Amino acid sequence: MTSPVVLTIAGSEATGGAGAQADLRTFQAHGVFGAVALTCIVSFDPNADWGHRFVPVERQVIADQLEAITAAYDQDQLAVTKIGMLGTPATIETVAGVLRERPFGQVVLDPVLICKGQEPGAALDTDTALKAEVLPLATFVTPNHFEAESLSGLEIRSVEDLTEAARRIHETSGAAVLAKGGVNLPGPDAVDVFVDGTTTEVLSSPKVGEVQVAGAGCTLAAAVAARLALGDSPLEAARAAKAFVTAGIRERLVSQAPFDVVRQQAV
Ligand code: PXL
Q1: 4 lines ligand 1 (CB under 6 A)
Q2: pLDDT (tens digit, 9 = 90+) per residue, 94-140?
Q3: Contact 6/80 with Cβ under 8 angstroms?
Q4: Residue extents of the structural domains in the chain
Q5: CA 108 – CA 197 distance, rounded (Å)
Q6: 5-250: CATH architecture
Q7: Which amino acid residue places its CA nearest to atom 10 of ligand 1?
Q8: Average pLDDT over all residues of the chain
Q9: Ligand 1 centroid distance, CA of 88 (Å)
Q10: Cα–Cα distance between 6 and 127 in angstroms, integer?
Q11: pTM greater than 0.90 (yes/no)
């Protein structure tokens, strides 16, 4: 039996809250089969404020993983690719090079710009490379508040600002954009804005607390990818993904770490 396969090109976050682990649980919850090309390994440091220890996977090993995946699944079966944390300019160059070589179907980009604990200079190079090399290849982008400011050049304080930022990111990338306000915008609701060439829609649901829950961004983009693989339009995928993340935040996992994580619920 064949099934839609969704690929995530993402990092490992060892405790399982974010990254490829969250992506795979999200794919499983939607009944789609997940493949992973691992880009880096993040290990939080409980002795240093839970900062990120970050090790990139060697370029050749990333290319090898993508070679194995694209040889196993043809383009009809591997219809959607999700991109999460890439982490270094070298990784970005490798991934963008492979994506340009063959069609990877729809490409959902979660533009993870900085990782706590990364050296700021290195993070700036990574941001620049991501914007130049990967953003033009994306068909769907899911920036959070900070990433939407960085990608649009706008300061975002309101839903109107978020909408304008999403429009600008759509104009420069050509991609459908789901810009996330989350807990960073004031008010009782968690507001995201969807923009593509034809539709602007504000997606709103009551905030579940005022504290950020880890893994929400990964889960949202992975749920968009899964829904697209199941045949949703981008707008339908955005609506369903938001509902999926909200349910996962309600059922969040509490641990000894200083942040709770999204727990994906079966659809
Ligand atoms: O949530 C962003 C993110 C993505 N990918 C990996 C991460 C994190 C944040 O911790 O570790 C691997």
Answers
A1: no
A2: 999 999 998 888 999 999 987 666 667 777 889 899 999 999 999 99
A3: yes
A4: 5-250
A5: 16
A6: 3-Layer(aba) Sandwich (3.40)
A7: 18
A8: 94
A9: 13
A10: 25
A11: yes
CA distance 179 to 146: 10
**Is the beta carbon of 34 within 6 A of some atom in ligand 1?**
no
Q: In the prediction, which pLDDT does 117 show?
A: 61
**Residue 149 three-state SS:** helix
Residue by residue, what is the 3-state secondary structure of 214-234?
ECHHHHHHHHHHHHHHCCCCH
CA nearest to 267, candidates 28, 45, 29 = 29
Do residues 181 and 145 touch, judged by C-beta distance below 8 A?
yes
Expressed in angstroms and rounded, the spacing between residue 123 Cα and the centre of ligand 1 is 14
161-209: pLDDT as tens digits: 999 999 999 999 999 999 999 889 999 999 999 999 899 999 999 999 8
Report the relative pairing of strands 51-56 and 78-83 from DSSP bridges: unpaired
Q: Report the C-alpha gap between 213 and 259 in whole angstroms.
A: 6
